[in-house]
């Protein structure tokens, strides 16, 4: 039996935002397939994307979250943290900004979580993941 998941409500998007969001979600899927979701390879790609870009502010990163979760049900689900966080980082880069991507782990039981930060704060997280997850990868 599965548990119900509350999705974030869809936002009204401009056509440019919708296209950029779809591009980011497709690029994320391609990235995960090509790297086989290996953290070292994802880190290399994200480092290359982060060159010569300015830091993203909290407002624009929250908007990127809204765009990504509106165009993709997979990213909006509670189990899509890796896909969602990568799509947000890629969308911010499309907009010329660099958001901080983090992956953390905790145990017992062993669990991992990926999230995005801007201005030193987690973006659109219900509970601050830095409290329960030890960040292992930060870009």
Observed structural traits:
single chain, 139 residues, alpha+beta, two-stranded parallel sheet, 6 helices, 6 strands, 19% strand
Would you spell out the secondary-structure blueprint of this structure?
Blueprint: H1 15-35, H2 39-50, E1 54-55, H3 58-71, H4 73-76, H5 81-94, E2 97-98, E3 100-106, E4 111-118, E5 121-122, H6 129-132, E6 134-138
Parallel strand pairs: 1-2
Antiparallel strand pairs: 3-4, 3-6, 4-5
Helix pairs in contact: 1-3, 1-5, 3-5
In short:
Helices cover 50% and strands 19% of the residues.
Question: Can you describe what's shown?
Answer:
The protein is an alpha+beta fold. The model has no long low-confidence stretch (mean pLDDT 90). It has one domain (15-138). The longest helix is centred in the first third of the chain and has 21 residues, at 15-35. The protein is built from six helices and six strands; from the N terminus they run H-H-E-H-H-H-E-E-E-E-H-E. A hairpin with a 2-residue loop joins strand 4 and strand 5. Helix 1 packs across helix 3 and helix 1 (15-35) crosses helix 5 (81-94). Pfam families: Transglut_core3.
């Amino acid at each position: 039996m599965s548990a119900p998941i509350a999705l974030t409500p869809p936002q009204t998007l401009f056509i440019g935002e919708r296209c950029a969001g779809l591009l980011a979600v497709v690029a994320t899927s391609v990235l995960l397939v090509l790297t086989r979701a290996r953290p070292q390879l994802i880190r290399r790609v994200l480092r290359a994307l982060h060159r010569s870009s300015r830091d993203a502010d909290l407002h624009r990163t929250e908007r990127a979250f809204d765009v990504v979760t509106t165009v993709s049900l997979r990213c909006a689900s509670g189990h899509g943290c890796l896909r969602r966080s990568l799509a947000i980082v890629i969308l911010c880069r499309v907009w010329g900004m660099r958001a901080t991507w983090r992956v953390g782990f905790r145990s017992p039981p062993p669990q991992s979580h990926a999230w995005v930060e801007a201005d030193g704060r987690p973006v659109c997280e219900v509970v601050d993941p830095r409290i329960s997850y030890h960040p292992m990868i930060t870009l």
